[in-house]
Write a structure and sequence with these properties.
This protein is an alpha/beta fold. The chain is built from 7 helices and 6 strands; from the N terminus they run H-H-H-E-E-H-E-H-E-H-E-E-H.
Length: 303
Amino acid sequence: MAGTCDVECDGVYQANLLNAHTAGLVSDKQLADASRRVLTHRFKLGLFDDPRRTAFWQGRYNDSATVHSAEHASIARDAATQSVVVVQNAGSVLPLNTSAKTVALIGPLANITDVFLGDYRPAACPGPARPAPQGTACLPTLSELLSKRLAGTGSKVILAEGCGDQGDAGVPCSGTAVTPDVTAALQAADVIVLAIGEKTTDNDSSGNTGGEGRDRDSIALPGLQAQLVTAALATHKPVVAVILSGGSVSVDALAGSSNTAVVYAGFGGESGQNAIIDVLFGDAPASGRLAFTVYPESWGKAT
């Protein structure tokens, strides 16, 4: 508190504040001033009001009139679209052509929803957030949206998630990310779309590779995802790598590869997956404003 930090959300104050006060390092006045500042904000926020009068208590905190309403979803989609950045489009792979007969969608982020919401978020769908995954049950996956976008064109989508997170959903990998279904999808594909990057979810934290408490000592793709990239590039077919992340993730193998597009999509929120599909097919323009620098995988490693 002497450093003007009234609140901390770990165990530092719990373990040390009483001893610091006893030793005279923190005064009664400092404690009182800090408490006054914290409680004043809480009163202003209504945290001490009668809870029976609040929308949360009455079950209206996730009302469909506001949560995921058409108006809010539209705003979210526009914001997400502006955050999608195409950093490489070698061979003019993008926009995708609906004449491609078979699109392989590969990677651990291809068929889940709440990865787009990141950490510390309310339910994105009306109704209760629990039990999981009710809070994201109204959202589509990339796989579902890609199939819907190609419906009626004569094209098909082959989904193969592989084992790119090395323990995704708590299931250990067998030592390779390129599972038999991935190999079959790569062989059949005319175009390959990789859904890779960091995973941080509330519904399945056991398979998370990012988020609070999961700092990584490398900026390379998590787990065994690099194996999926290598296998895709080895086919010499058009590849689109869609990378979800909360920060810089390096893509050494993809950088400069021919017939390869690299798309950073961040964590786009409730309409993030829609924005990705819009950009991939040219239905919406991509941004050129990357919010971070992408360093080589060797950056930060001890030499």
